[in-house]
Design goal:
The chain has 181 residues and is of the alpha/beta class. Helix content is 52%, strand content 14%. The N and C termini lie far apart (70 Å).
Amino acid sequence: MQSGNKESFLNLSGNSFILLFITLIICSILAFKNIVFRPTFLLKNFGELSVDPEIAFTNNRPTFLEFYAEWCEVCKEMAPKIADIKKEYENEINFVFLNVDNPKWEKYIRNFNVNGIPQLNLFDEKANLEVTFIGKQQEKKIKEALDNLHQDFQSNSQIVNSEFSIIRENKKYQSYPRSHG
């Protein structure tokens, strides 16, 4: 009879251990959800709260246009930085976010030669394209370009990512707008 009690006790402690382990995993997920899920949430939020491109290009304000995808790891990595930039400049600049997986934006994807994501296009208040950033960029570089929008850019449009500029010129290379920069 005593061996039955031992097995019962071991079973109970084993079940308690499993329950404790599962609880620990759930608590860890909840504690780190902002780190793990925040970038995806930010990207979805960007798309939902985006200024319509037609309005942005006609309201006499500079425009920040980002082409992104929710599955893009580089887009996710940059999302918190872009959120900070948006928060800092949203009173002065239009922020437009277009998901390359949405066929609704195909016209813009073609017009702006999107061949890698994320792609950031910065426009002056007259909707003239001033700078294009392709791929992962530093927050400082983006802010400098945004600050220059207010100081009337001295040069014409420029692409910041020489590797993509070279690839774009290669006629044999078939770029795909949903590829990474």
